[in-house]
Task: inverse folding
């Protein structure tokens, strides 16, 4: 591929991101601007921003490879996605938005009036975001290496420097507007393949029939190799993962109001499904039929397909689309991990409990420094990533799910859910999932029979249900923010804590 | 029976049931908009 085309297309992309970062940077006065951009966004921007944040580079690169290998229907748990979005819509979004939080750890700390729970959940968010960030930086490096012809390390430096720059400067405002631009780049990158893919592989039905003819079972529910047990645990993982997906769920904090936070969800869910139906099922079938037999590794399926079907300029556009999908997730993760460390761990767990008063400008500077530091550390780890981190990436969503699912679901719907039970559920769910993951990676036979999220969720549920009746509920003041009518009976409404901003 | 290249059960799992759930999401939003749901 001619790298000149790559330079032109990626140059335009880079310039767009830098300009958005500079423009957003001018509007940052407080940490509220940095973390939630003044909660100003309406439904259309929310839809584009959320969609870009949850679709990452691997959604296409690994998705096409995964679909080509295992079957287009089996790998896409759309039922789980839709149910996960429904749970957020019906149970989480309104109360989370109305509490005026910055982070998920804010919810954990304030709903249960618990500093340990805030600190533990911030640690889980920070560490899992960094693990995920490392994988995304590596993926972005591979794409830019192919697009620009730089070395892998130089490509990672370029990609990381770009998103660290605009996130540290412009915070959530830069993230959301770059996500909107990245949304357009990623759709353009995929759609540019469509005419050539149609000419080579046929329409949707034809491509699927051809894949089925090459690999019997490709269009079946179980795909080419899966069992019902594996498929059902796959659905469970993704249901919990989407209901607790931090890049998704924390976006409710930036909506103009709690209605907007919810209105954005169905359209986002629909767009994700259309994107993957085309980007994974159709392109996976096309890759299986057209290029699969000549591949050294499955992850080359999408680049090989693009190379076969497109010219240099259009390939550059397609690869820039994938790079922007990767970057739209890395910037959200960087902001999340930065907020977990700067806002939750430093400000809420260290400074404020000790009565240390600092001006808002100090916290803004610290937050930006933390964002840069997290970016540098993630980059350093991406340079020579320990095998364990790469292996953990695919289990990170399970660990987050087991940590947050029941404290969110029960904490927002059942007033009695106690702080001690929520802490036990979070810690127990996380540790069980982590331990089971370790056993699975160590290839212990019986552990491999169940996905780590299954025992993790079981322990989390048992602990929260079993301990709540025997432990003290959260203070009425904390509950009044989430259960106003019940709280009103316990104390006057004006006694509820004021909004943070 | 095949629908857009998919066996009927795959069509249900990949298209019909997820779309029905999304339709329910829109219904919930409509309830919120019209004040039928908080």
Result:
């Amino acid at each position: 591929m001619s790298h000149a085309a790559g330079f032109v297309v990626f140059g335009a992309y880079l310039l767009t991101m830098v300009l958005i970062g500079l423009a957003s940077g001018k509007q940052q006065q407080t940490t509220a601007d940095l973390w939630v951009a003044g909660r100003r966004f309406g439904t259309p921007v929310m839809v584009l921003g959320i969609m870009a944040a949850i679709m990452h580079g691997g959604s296409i690169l690994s998705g096409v490879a995964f679909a080509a290998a295992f079957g287009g229907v089996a790998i896409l748990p759309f039922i789980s996605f839709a149910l996960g979005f429904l749970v957020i819509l019906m149970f989480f979004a309104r109360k989370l938005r109305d509490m005026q939080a910055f982070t998920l750890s804010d919810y954990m700390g304030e709903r249960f009036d618990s500093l340990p729970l805030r600190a533990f959940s911030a640690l889980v968010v920070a560490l899992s975001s960094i693990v995920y960030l490392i994988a995304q930086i590596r993926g972005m490096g591979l794409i830019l290496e192919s697009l620009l012809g730089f070395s892998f390390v130089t490509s990672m430096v370029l990609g990381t420097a770009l998103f660290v720059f605009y996130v540290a400067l412009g915070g959530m405002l830069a993230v959301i507007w770059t996500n909107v631009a990245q949304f357009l780049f990623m759709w353009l990158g995929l759609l540019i393949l469509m005419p050539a893919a149609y000419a080579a592989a046929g329409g949707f039905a034809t491509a699927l029939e051809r894949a089925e003819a090459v690999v019997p079972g490709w269009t079946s529910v179980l795909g080419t190799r899966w069992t019902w047990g594996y498929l059902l645990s796959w659905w469970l993982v993704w249901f919990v993962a989407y209901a607790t997906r931090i890049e998704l769920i924390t976006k409710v904090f930036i909506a103009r109001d709690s209605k907007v936070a919810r209105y954005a969800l169905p359209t986002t869910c629909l767009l994700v499904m259309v994107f993957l139906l085309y980007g994974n099922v159709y392109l996976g079938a096309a890759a299986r039929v057209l290029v699969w037999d000549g591949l050294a590794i499955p992850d080359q399926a999408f680049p090989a397909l693009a190379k076969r079907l497109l010219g240099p300029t259009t390939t550059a556009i397609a690869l820039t689309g994938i790079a922007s999908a990767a970057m739209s997730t890395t910037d959200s993760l960087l902001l999340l991990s930065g907020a977990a460390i700067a806002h939750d761990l430093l400000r809420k767990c260290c400074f404020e409990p000790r009565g240390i008063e600092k001006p808002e400008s100090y916290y803004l500077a610290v937050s930006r420094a933390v964002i840069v530091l997290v970016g540098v550390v993630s980059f350093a780890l991406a340079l020579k990533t320990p095998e364990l981190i790469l292996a953990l990436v695919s289990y990170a969503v399970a660990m987050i799910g087991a940590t947050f699912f029941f404290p969110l679901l029960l904490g927002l719907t059942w007033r009695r859910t106690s702080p001690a039970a929520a802490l036990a559920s979070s810690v127990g769910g996380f540790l069980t999932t982590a331990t089971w993951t370790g056993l699975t990676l160590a290839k212990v036979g019986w552990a491999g029979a169940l996905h780590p999220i299954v025992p993790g969720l079981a322990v989390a549920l048992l602990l929260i249900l079993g301990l709540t009746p025997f432990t003290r509920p959260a203070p009425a003041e904390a509950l009044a923010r989430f259960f106003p009518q019940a709280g009103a009976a316990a104390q006057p409404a004006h006694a509820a804590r004021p909004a943070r901003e | 029976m095949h629908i857009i290249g998919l066996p009927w059960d795959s069509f249900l799992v990949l298209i019909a049931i997820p779309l029905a759930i999304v339709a329910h999401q829109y219904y919930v939003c409509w309830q919120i908009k019209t004040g039928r749901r908080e």
Q: What stands out?
A: The mean pLDDT of chain B is 95. Residues 2-33 of chain B form one domain.
